[in-house]
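Hi Prof. W.,

I finally got the AAA+ ATPase domain-containing protein prediction working! I wasn't sure whether to trim anything, so I left the full sequence exactly as given:
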Amino acid sequence: MSFENYPVLEKYLTPLPDLNRPLIGREKEVQKFTYTLFNSVMSNPCLLGEAGTGKTALVQGVKKVLSPHGFQFFELDLLRMQNDTRPLDSLIKDVIDQLKQHYRQTKEKDIVFVDEMHLLFKVSEGSAAQAMKQVLADSARYGLYFAFATTLSEYEQYVAEDEAFDQRMLRISLPEVSKATTMSILQDMVRLNLKNIPKGTKLESRLFEKIVDYTDRYLQGDSQPRKSIKVLDSMIGRVRGARYFNLKYNLDTDNLAEVLKSSIGVDIKWDYDLKAVEKELNAKVIYQTLAIKAVVNRLYIARAHLNDPTRPLASFLYSGPTGVGKTELAKAIASVVFGSEKNIVRFDMTEYSVPDSVERLRKELTKRIWATPNCVLLFDEIEKASPQATKLLLPVLDDARLTNRYGKTVSFADCIIVMTTNVAHNVYKGIGENIGDTQNLTDQQLEDLLNDTTNLILRNLEGDEVFPTELINRIDVIAPFAPLIAPAREKIALMALRKLRQRVFDTKRVKVDFDKKVLEYIVYENSSNDTSRSNGRTINHRIDSEIVSEIAKFIYNFPNAKQINVGVSGNLIYKQKTTTIKVARIKVGLPENILVSEGI
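And this is what came out:
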């Protein structure tokens, strides 16, 4: 059909496409929509449903019923109209006037579908909605029917306050279709595509059920059936397109896993060797065998899918002094379990220390987990959070769910939740600071030490306002982090110096050698024996302030140097019982000026 003599209609009104699949599970809604069009008073239906519930598909289903009886179906493109140089209300008036003229000339009954109808209220302070409202009361007299659609949250935010507009429409709720209906739709998709699917393609039993389950779990921002349709469509596309690369795919779990991994970064196979994971975690986080053992024990449950599916995969409270590897272990878990350190969502809870920040936390938390549902969710320094912010986390830990301000529920069922704190670090002074030295313990001794330490931390937290009982009871595991003993500090410093050496070479092509005394100086000289102060952060800070800065100055002053030695001038006094001020200091220079007697 042409609108050649109606320029605004020709530009912004397009025929509604036919539905390319059967409309399953919406028979009652199609009837209600159709009956509304023939109402004597309110003949303009308004579909309310979340994105993906099939609002457009429903109108297309009605079109299939009414098109043989002379009804024409069109879609009004509000998104394009709002970008026009003319005001939206002026364009809406022209649309209405030209539709009336068209009816007078042709006597054709036009049904105009207005999707995203909240834009009428959102743009130009609602003047477009006022222009539309004037015609709704008697639009059927002109053979003209408007069918609107938007989400419930947007309707409540933009439309509901205008009672006059609301009363000129009949609202039709469009909830998500059932699991069985979605599976029927998927089955019908495959049937309709059989002629295009290569012969010999295998269809796995229960595939449709898996698609629905996984999309419900990982694609919470969309609704059924759209999200399942999109996933199956991508799987069919891989099956059909594989031959151009001499590949072959089936409609099975492997194909589904690849589609979900490439589209949203989720690995549904979640297949990893926990013994290898434990070994890798111990390599990344030095001398924290006790904490890693606690974490891995819990990951065995999640790996076997024996965890409660209505709660997060696991929840941990990392307790211990500052700078001993709590945040590093969270990053390491994201890397080895979810494939990348990018799969960590971090919240610094010092930013949510006042009661007024709780809604900001809700907004950020739901938004970021909706975008990255498969992640380590890290709440750093949980003790700094306000009681209101802590209370907000209770449904997350208990039911793996949190509702945003628009009423949309976000699932945390595929998160590993980590909270860090140093509130109970004084516990370690009561049981001996050498609990970090567990290298020679048997597995049973390690488990016994873990249980004893965990119970001591729990007793220490009893009655603490920061950790109310309802929070502690929702945490799966407390992971105790030991103070850094001397061998741990040495190893951290050694790793940091080697990384520095590599960084200097990679960026400046300059070779750096460190004398062994540099390691002693950084770890022991003028450092505190207080485990709450002598930690990985202080070591890295000393390397930055006393070594990196000196190397940078030397390279600036001697840009042609290809070899730098780093040593210690003066005498190390850390082994002596003296109050003498610092004697030794870092010295950087050319090899002929600084001798490295024993390198590292």
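The chain is about 45% helix and 15% strand. Does that look reasonable to you?

Thanks,
D.
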